[in-house]
Amino acid sequence: MESKRQQKMASLLQQELASVLQRDLPHLFGGGMAPGISTVKVTPDLGQARVYLSLLLGGDAEERLATIRDNGKEIRHALAKRIRQTARVVPELIFFHDDSAAYAAHMDGILGTLVIPPAPKDDASDDDDDKPARPRLFN
């Protein structure tokens, strides 16, 4: 369970990192689209931040993630310029690829191909089929 302090810092980092990647450092992506930031998780001491990036659009995800990791110091420096009035220390940024959207699409495809037969009807009952059976409370 994250504390309020961690949640506030994670929210601040998510907003500011999105601005940094889109406005301050667009040259990192060669004119392509900047990645979206899905989630930011901050450690309790606020020393590290795990940044989960959505890299669905814009080419090879692994290559883009490697570019971001290689330029981590530049990203952290640009982030520090933006949050220097708000945060005392800028956490170390660790970038991960968030593939939950791709996984959800994959699972949706699998569930869409399933053939589920209808449930068999019980022929032994003489009750009306229109009304659901009432549970018996007493014997």
From TrEMBL:
Regions that span the bilayer: none
Pfam families: RBFA (PF02033)
Superkingdom of origin: Bacteria
Nucleus keyword on record: no
Chain segments carrying region Disordered: 118-139
Location in the cell: Cytoplasm
Keywords: Cytoplasm, Ribosome biogenesis
InterPro entries reported for this sequence: KH_dom-like_a/b (IPR015946), RbfA (IPR000238), RbfA_dom_sf (IPR023799)
Cellular component per GO, a single term: cytosol
Family: Belongs to the RbfA family.
UniProt cross-references to PANTHER family, sorted A to Z: RIBOSOME-BINDING FACTOR A, CHLOROPLASTIC-RELATED
Quaternary structure note: Monomer. Binds 30S ribosomal subunits, but not 50S ribosomal subunits or 70S ribosomes.
Protein role: One of several proteins that assist in the late maturation steps of the functional core of the 30S ribosomal subunit. Associates with free 30S ribosomal subunits (but not with 30S subunits that are part of 70S ribosomes or polysomes). Required for efficient processing of 16S rRNA. May interact with the 5'-terminal helix region of 16S rRNA.
UniProt protein name: Ribosome-binding factor A
Lineage, opening ranks: Bacteria, Pseudomonadati, Bacteroidota, Cytophagia, Cytophagales
